[in-house]
Amino acid sequence: MNSYDIDLNKVPTHIAIIMDGNGRWAKSKFLPRTAGHKAGVETIRKVLKECQRLGVKHLTLYAFSTENWKRPKLEVDTLMNLLSTYLKKEVRELHKNNVKISTIGDIDKLPKYCVDELERAYELTKFNTGVNLNLALNYGARYDIKNAVIDIVKDTKCGKLDIEDINEDTITNYLSTKSIKEPDLIIRTSGEQRLSNFLLWEAAYSEFYFTDIHWPDFNEEQLQKAIYVYQNRDRRFGGLK
Ligand code: FPP
């Protein structure tokens, strides 16, 4: 059911979401912050299903940033547990629904039980052709760009790449998002209006949608609203219409 008049032929190919406000949601209900993250996983289920229904190709979720390690250990442990439990419990169902799981970010720094679940999930879903659920885990855009620069320099030094041939596409193709390219629409919940080190290079021509709603209260209808607003924007990519 569509609550908004969405044109199904113009659904964004790639939606990226900064899932913000779990802590504030929990606080407003006198619950621990971790309860907000648990409720946030429920929203992930709803949003992923809706992306499948609408034909979104890539859904990138900012699940854990390189800066999130600064949070209390209990909160970090809860987030890691939620990730591994989600994958353990749902990867089969996701596979049945043709969802492909991928990640961006340095997952080797995650606890081994998370890395194991992630590797199982990649392996099981790697040939799926439905929605690509791309989890940004221990991800930071500056870190990703720095790694791209290092790899470009290495490949230039060993003669694999000619300095004359380096252009913007070269950089795009050395980032961890190389196979999915830039997001058409970036959504951030909970009122903040910043990128917080998310997809800095890729966001150059993305449309932004900000909502005051906390992530645990975001739902299918809210996603439709974001897509509806996106479809009524005028994307010119720096040119004239
Ligand atoms: C931001 O809210 C949310 C996060 C830092 C983590 C989001 C992670 C999940 C919803 C669960 C991850 C699990 C899977 C399955 C990928 P906040 O804590 O910054 O909220 P606040 O700004 O109100 O404090």
UniProtKB/TrEMBL annotation:
EC class (word): transferase
Residues reported to bind Mg(2+): 20, 207
Presence of keyword Magnesium: yes
Swiss-Prot/TrEMBL cofactor(s): Mg(2+)
Keyword Magnesium set for record: yes
Annotated positions binding substrate: 21-25, 33, 37, 65-67, 69, 71, 188, 194-196
Subunit architecture: Homodimer.
UniProt family annotation: Belongs to the UPP synthase family.
Protein name (record): Isoprenyl transferase
Organism: Romboutsia sedimentorum
